[in-house]
Amino acid sequence: MKDKIIAKATDLFLKLGFKSVTMDDIAGEMCISKKTIYKYFCNKELLIEESTEMVHKEVHQIIDGIVAKNHNAIEENFEIRKMFKEMFKVGEASPIFQLKKHYPEIYENVMSREINECNVVFKQNIEKGIQEGLYRKESPIDTYVGFYYTLIFSINGKISSEKEANELEMQALEYHTRAMATTEGIIELEKQLHNYHQ
Q1: Under a CB-based contact definition with an 8 Å cutoff, are residues 127 and 177 in contact?
Q2: Can you tell me the distance from the alpha carbon of 159 to that of 185, in angstroms, rounded to the nearest whole number?
Q3: Which of these, 48, 62, 104, 185, could form a disulfide with 181 (CB 3.0-4.6 Å)?
């Protein structure tokens, strides 16, 4: 039952926002009593923590799956971008923005965890791109990793519209890729941009 509550709550939080969804809403959606929810979660904050943990695990399992498909480095980033767009298209409001505004402590925990994991993914992607000749050999890897996650996470924390956040993240990906790309990398980038906007 606990896992079912987390799954339903996560679905509602992503669709309607962390602030607006109440324990009553979750109970109503599941046709259970609020008392049943409180048996597993003493407050809403605890349920939000569990929900964000579930989303985090799910996102990184999907990212691992994309990386395992062995796309070239630029295509890999576009596939990850598409996954985020699909996963968070359910709601108008950006879940990360809401989390930062209404539950700052949970937001800080989520961000520190994400930054650590994303650092690894971004770094591996740049190293792979250099090996493939798509990114310049002299690219300062750690600097570019820092630039990229600062861009992505500042967009998420400051933009309330999920649609607008998605568009800006796409522009950030293009900006990030152009900064490192070789001539061959630019050709691949243009191809991926064309496919993405189809």
Answers
A1: no
A2: 30
A3: 185
DSSP secondary structure letter of residue 135: B
Query: Token pair of 30, please?
Result: 């599941």
Please give the model's pTM, rounded to 2 decimal places.
Answer: 0.85
Exposed/middle/buried for 193, CB within 10 Å: 0-12, 13-18, 19+? middle
Closest listed residue to residue 9, CA positions, set 37, 33, 39:
37
CA distance 89 to 166: 9
Query: What residues contact residue 4 under an 8 Å CB cut-off, 6+ apart?
Result: 30
Of 153, 149, 181, 150, give the one whose Cα is nearest residue 165: 153
**Tens-binned pLDDT, residue by residue, of the chain (198 aa):** 999 999 999 999 988 888 889 999 999 999 999 999 999 999 999 999 999 999 889 988 999 999 999 999 999 999 999 988 887 765 666 777 888 888 999 988 888 888 888 889 999 999 999 999 999 999 999 999 999 988 988 887 788 788 888 889 999 999 999 999 999 999 999 999 999 888
What architecture is domain 51-197? Orthogonal Bundle (1.10)
